[in-house]
Amino acid sequence: MRVLPSAKAVLHRTALIALLSAPTLAAAQCGGSFQNFVRGLKDEAVSAGYAISTVNEFFNGVSQDQSVLRADRSQGVFQKPFVEFSRRLISQSRLNRGRSKGEEFDKIFDRIETTYGINRGVLLAFWAFETDYGAVQGDFNTRNALVTLAHDCRRPDLFRPQIFSALELYRKGDFDPARTTGAWAGEIGMVQMLPSDILEHGVDADGDGHVTLKTSAADALMSAARMLSHLGWRANEPWLQEVTIPADMDVSASGPAYKKSLADWEAMGVAPRTTSFAMKDAEASLLLPQGHKGPAFLAYPNFDIYFEWNQSFTYVLTAAYFATRLEGAPVYDAGSSEQGLSGDQMKELQRRLQARGHDVGDVDGILGANTRLAVQKEQKRLGFPADAWPTPDLLNAL
Asked: Can you tell me the distance from the alpha carbon of 16 to that of 289, in angstroms, rounded to the nearest whole number?
């Protein structure tokens, strides 16, 4: 029998929806006096239907956290190329622990695979990279982090709604504003989910009446699976497979933005490194994270869902690759990539690309999706192999 929500619960949900559906207001209200900013948040929550006592309790003792802002501005790890980054994150110990966790929580993973069609390796990889299987969940006060980032005018439209989601979690008894901690960007628990994602996708998998992502592996894993399913994960389909490519292949159609059928890739000489293609009929992208002489992968439709979790190409590819390792795939062939660029050289490359009219986003020294596309276009123009891997020779040619 379905239990209908109480009138009070409906009121709070309606209030929350109203708060979360005002991006223009969110973007406008940032900066200025921190105290005035907090006062505005409180007034908005009360006007949306939250009790004054609840609002005051939630915001009591809130403070600006400068360490959060420092963390937001120094994400240098994503400047590392794929081979270095993946070797840094993937160790034999982490691999062994992942397989051990898979056995320990076998029943939960069986439920996930039956309910959502998501392989355990996918979730184990997220669990490993986000918190080292729950061991390192972050010690930033979540409420303070969210309010600090919403007050900062870089991305208020992202973080301001999360404050009100945390307020709703507090009202439900699943958030302690003084003691709930997590990552600097406000993610909570073993798989690091934002408050709004917990509200929408949280699952009480252990049946204790609460969604507790910090201490319940069952809740965390099932919630993450539900979220991936909501984002469009295609049940029981692959996500990534290592391949080999001919030395003289035209690589101008490589990269996440381009897709071809497996028949087309086969006709161009792309072949699975081991066994056979993971799907018979599918479109896939050819990924060359460090150019045509480095590792090569085919990314299937599920790979795109990773970008809903994290926007870093290097992180996403590493997480997807580690998931295949946990499922039994061998270590990739690193090949012999050409020398890449240092962080300062990458920034200079981005400035030169901007000068030629390319949209590369921020000049941050990170080889992101926009920078890769711009590099590929310039490589085509200049007669370089168009594999989106910038080298000192390309930088000099620009």
From this structure: 41
Do residues 125 and 246 share a domain?
Answer: no
- The residues, any chain, with a CB within 8 Å of residue 81's CB and separated by 6 or more, are 289, 290, 314, 337, 340, 367
pLDDT of residue 394: 96
Total domains in the chain come to 4
What does the pLDDT look like over 307-331, one tens digit per residue?
A: 998 888 999 999 999 999 999 999 9
- Spatial distance between the Cα atoms of 72 and 214, rounded to a whole number of angstroms: 22
Residue 105 · residue 218 · CB < 8 Å: yes
Q: Which domain holds residue 13?
A: 1-75+144-179
Which distant-in-sequence residues (6+ apart) come within 8 Å of 234 by Cβ? 117, 301, 302
Q: What are the pLDDT digits (tens) for 17-64?
A: 445 444 444 444 789 999 999 999 999 999 999 999 999 999 999 999
φ/ψ (deg, to 5) at 174: -110, 20
Name the packing angle between helices 92-104 and 120-131 (round to 10°). Answer: 120
Q: In the structure, what pLDDT confidence band is assigned to residue 75 with cuts at 50, 70 and 90?
A: low
Measured CA to CA, the distance from residue 140 to residue 143 in angstroms comes to 9
Q: At what angle do helices 82-89 and 313-326 cross, to 10 degrees?
A: 50
